[in-house]
Amino acid sequence: MNFSRLAPLQRRLLDHFYRQHGSRMRAAGEGEQWVARAGEIIAGVNLTPVTGGQWLTALFVAPQWRGQHVATRLLDTALRDAPGATWLFCHPDLARFYQNLAFTPAIDLPQALAARLARYQRSKPLMAMVRGQSSATSSPGNSTSV
């Protein structure tokens, strides 16, 4: 199994992987896409730059590969040299899963993410989580409380 960043021209491979598994997720138009491969793509994730770090979206592991620490290894590789904090939004039922991946509930978010979360929460239950947030990124002058 190997873990790598997709070149921008290969982004459609991740979209194909999501569709192949009936997921409505999509590869982000900006930022980085990372994949795990065991011959073919077995997992993917998007990292989009935001103030103070990145926003993680569309983490998906093929069903037959779940429970084998693929998500942990993929995120550890993708976030190894990532600057700042990494935020994500998830359904509260997934909080335990993300806590096992070193995420904690986020209190402070960059303004752009706080506004997006507020919009999303109008139609679905979501919570924000963060990994690697330093005191510099969580200071009131750099973020917005939600």
Description:
Residues 1-122 form the N-acetyltransferase domain. InterPro entries: GNAT_dom. Pfam families: Acetyltransf_7. This is GNAT family N-acetyltransferase. The chain is an alpha+beta fold and 146 residues long. Helix content is 24%, strand content 33%. The protein has helices at residues 11-20, 70-79, 95-99, 111-120; strands at 2-5, 32-38, 40-50, 53-61, 85-90, 104-105, 108-109, 127-131, 144-145. It is globular.
Distance between the termini: 39 Å
CATH architecture tag: 3-Layer(aba) Sandwich
Q: Can you tell me the overall shape?
A: globular
Strand arrangement in the largest pleated sheet: 1-2-3-4-5-8-6
Domain N-acetyltransferase: 1-122
Protein name: GNAT family N-acetyltransferase
Organism: Pseudomonas muyukensis
Looking at this protein, list some descriptive labels.
single chain; 146 residues; alpha+beta; Aminopeptidase; 7-stranded mixed sheet; two-stranded antiparallel ribbon; 4 helices; disordered C terminus; GNAT family N-acetyltransferase; GNAT_dom
Would you kindly provide a brief summary of this structure?
By secondary structure, the protein is an alpha+beta fold. Helices cover 24% and strands 33% of the residues.
Helix-strand blueprint:
Blueprint: E1 2-5, H1 11-20, E2 32-38, E3 40-50, E4 53-61, H2 70-79, E5 85-90, H3 95-99, E6 104-105, E7 108-109, H4 111-120, E8 127-131, E9 144-145
Parallel strand pairs: 4-5
Antiparallel strand pairs: 1-2, 2-3, 3-4, 5-8, 6-8, 7-9
Domain N-acetyltransferase: 1-122
Organism: Pseudomonas muyukensis
Pfam family, one: Acetyltransf_7
